[in-house]
Amino acid sequence: MMAMYSEKVMEHFKHPHNMGEMEDADAVGKKGNPACGDVMYVYLKIKDNVIVDIRFQTMGCAAAIATSSMITDLAKGKTLDEALKITKSDVAAELGGLPPLKMHCSNLAADALLDAIKNYREKKKAGAA
Amino acid sequence: MMEVYLDNGATTKVDPRAVDVMISFMLKDYGNPSSVHSLGQNAEEHLEKARETIALKVNAKRDEIIFTSGGTESDNLAIRGVAHKKGSGHIITSKIEHPAVLNTCKRLENEGFSVTYLGVDKEGFIDIKELEDAITDKTILISIMHVNNEIGVIQDLESIGRIAKEKGVIFHSDTVQSFTKVPIDVEKMNLSMASFASHKIHGPKGVGALYIKKGIGIDKLLYGGHQEKDLRPGTQNMPAIMGFAKAAELMTDDDLARMQKLRDRLAEGILDEVKDCFLNGSKDKRSVNNVNISFRYIEGESILLHLDMHGISVSTGSACSSQSLRPSHVLTALGLKAEEAHGSVRFTLSRFTTEAEIDHTIEAVRSVIPDLRKMSPLKKGMEDMKWDEVDHDHA
Fold this sequence. Notes:
The complex is a heterodimer.
Chain A: H1 7-14, E1 27-33, E2 38-47, E3 50-59, H2 62-75, H3 80-84, H4 88-94, H5 100-105, H6 109-128
Antiparallel strand pairs in A: 1-2, 2-3
Helix pairs in contact in A: 1-2
Chain B: E1 4-5, H1 16-27, H2 38-57, E2 65-68, H3 71-86, E3 90-94, H4 99-110, E4 114-118, H5 128-134, E5 139-143, H6 157-167, E6 170-174, E7 193-197, E8 208-212, H7 227-230, H8 238-250, H9 253-271, E9 277-279, E10 290-295, H10 300-309, E11 312-313, E12 315-316, H11 329-333, H12 338-342, E13 344-348, H13 355-375, H14 378-384
Parallel strand pairs in B: 1-11, 3-4, 3-5, 5-6, 6-7
Antiparallel strand pairs in B: 2-8, 7-8, 9-10, 10-13, 12-13
């Protein structure tokens, strides 16, 4: 089982970064389905279009948790436009690769981040109107 | 760190006493039992003693046991053997069988046989009346496992055997998980065939046996010499067979009583203290070595890997640790939702399991589960989220 995952994946799985709920988040992104075994929530704190804080909560396998942890590292401090450019492949590459079987089903983090940013922009638009 | 192996349903440590026997059949008594000289005849004598040892464990006769390469081959030989002998017909099995039975039956469907897959109730039992009603004049075989490998539930083979006898249908059982742990009596259970595997009982891998009642005709799978009553050609794997027979002798009633006590200690130690979890399968009619628990709001592979960090080896019915990305077919047959199957963990004990190991495991589970739940959005998510479409075939 250990050989299935890279050292980097196991490191993030064992000690995830930016883990936990954010009570006063400006936006929340949600992806996955418990029936598939993976659900991710990503919470954003945004100031002047920059992600100043990001946290996650994930139910899922080691790959799901490691990709969640990694995306918080990648997105923190970035502008929303920069953050939108982070892809699933970027997340996997930063983790030293994922098992092929996990590439699609457990690599939700980029989608959840996208969902959070989309929700933020819609909320802002609605607020401005 | 304490190493705790609780995956004995997957495989077991070979008993050193079985290893000693095996070594002597490689270095000293290495003859081929088919050879006429003394070395060969010495091997033949031991082979027949081993056959007798296995037979006695299940109240069979010595010449009703043939040695195979393991549980999978025994299941294939039994089921395909009957099907091909009969040429056509109907087979009854259950939805919770081991893949060695399920996939053999699926293959036979492609070959023109019809198969009924009986469901189970929420405790894991087939309905005996439903089985009886499924029998037609075309039915050639009933194959129902004794102890389920995932949830440890013991089917009522005596009742099934009574019906099979009344209707004159051949009755096979995959008894791989029950052998030496739950009593098997081929006469009382009216079994026509039963499959055994060595590596689940502290014997070596790559060897098993099939009980075939005298008078039951089956076709063979392999062609070659006339070994094993002309049903299983190839020189017998003597070191492995001798190790298997030795291992079968070693389980005692005291071992079984101790395992059952430790099993209950483990189950209660978890179920009484950890919130939002439940036992899968019947509480009472289950193997002495199996505890299977679903933990809500978290996923099994994560639990497994966290327990592994505590030195504890277990397995899970989560899709995330399977090659198919589907949750356990056994747990879904019990009526569990996919997310409940994903959160399942199977602990399987052996006679080497100690009380200290069980207590270490209880303590680790009590710390790992809340930690993973802190990471999970699911408890809240269950209330407020509309989920994405389920797409099990997305890989």
